[in-house]
Amino acid sequence: RERAVVALASRTQQFSPTGKYKADGVLETLTLHSLACYEDLVTFLQQSIRQFEVGPYGCILLTLSAILSRSTELIRQDFDVPTSHLIGAHGYCTQELVNLLLTGKAVSNVFNDVVELDSGDGNITLLRGIAARSDIGFLSLFEHYNVCQVGCFLKTPRFPIWVVCSESHFSVLFSLQPGLLRDWRTERLFDLYYYDGLANQQEQIRLTIDTTQTISDDTDNDLVPPLELCIRTKWKGASVNWNGSDPIL
Prior knowledge:
Number of helices: 7
Helix content: 10-25%
Number of strands: 10
Enzyme class: hydrolase
Catalytic activity: Thiol-dependent hydrolysis of ester, thioester, amide, peptide and isopeptide bonds formed by the C-terminal Gly of ubiquitin (a 76-residue protein attached to proteins as an intracellular targeting signal)
Oligomer: single chain
Order of helices and strands: EEHHHHEEEHHEEEEHE
Protein name: Ubiquitin carboxyl-terminal hydrolase MINDY
EC number: 3.4.19.12
Domain Deubiquitinating enzyme MINDY-3/4 conserved: 1-244
Strand content: 15-25%
Structural class: alpha+beta
């Protein structure tokens, strides 16, 4: 929270590739902009937002900006294992990259704080999780299947926006009520909006969540939309009304 680096593509080649590095049309055109004031960062991003939104390299620029802002040295220290990666098999982003974008630290886990594992021979392994309440949340279908446990620092973010890991890609749930997570009474009956960019979604999907009516866990999971299973990792047993939209199976 002291310095940010924003990577932007230029129209000119900034250096000549040598050695093992081969030109890819992106990295050799980058210019790096370092900002030490939050207000200056916001202004600079507003002026440059077109590169991220409609430019061909927006995803790459965002990722590189996050990496350089954290620094490669600190990212390696964030990993549970120094040989971890930000990009996994088949080009998928790893949990470390997701956490870097959500929280600013490339830790390997989604539970709260740090867990110590004692192997019994005096060796203790530290598994690093989320250190503080995140601005943006995270929900995972893997938690429904007991593969991981998402801590409250991600489940109850400062803003009612959640990145959702389900069906091999990421989508977004959000509420239009900024104060949704500040008063438990507002979580009795509320709306969440769903957006899946990979599906080229054109129509609005509004889900009404009712936590006063509980759904049994015995329901055949094959007939339950995975998104509902993700929602119930946060609001256990809640009923989900798709309000006329076709449930995504």
